[in-house]
Design brief:
With 114 residues, this protein is mostly beta strands. Helix content is 0%, strand content 47%.
Amino acid sequence: QVQFVESGGGLVQPGGALRLSCAASGNTFWGYAMGWYRQAPGQQRELVATIPVVGTARYATSVQGRFTVSINSAKNTVYLQMNSLKPEDTAVYFCNSDPTEFHWGQGTQVTVSS
């Protein structure tokens, strides 16, 4: 089983940037496509970015061109670089495989507000 610990969230002004990290422990996520998900208050969790084992990363339309997902397999860590943040990006961000195979971590809160 793989456990995820997300970090890097915080309060940022519109137009700002954050870099989220997702550290995996237990077993590696090698061989799985990895995704970043987010859940805003009162809304369902949604997939915003996926980095496949082979191929090109995919993004939700709402974050295309602003977010970049990357992976450091040696560190068992997945990253999400978020630029040009908007208030509607406010949510708790999680990582998991895509499709989800593992238990969810605690997530990291991202708040975009002036």
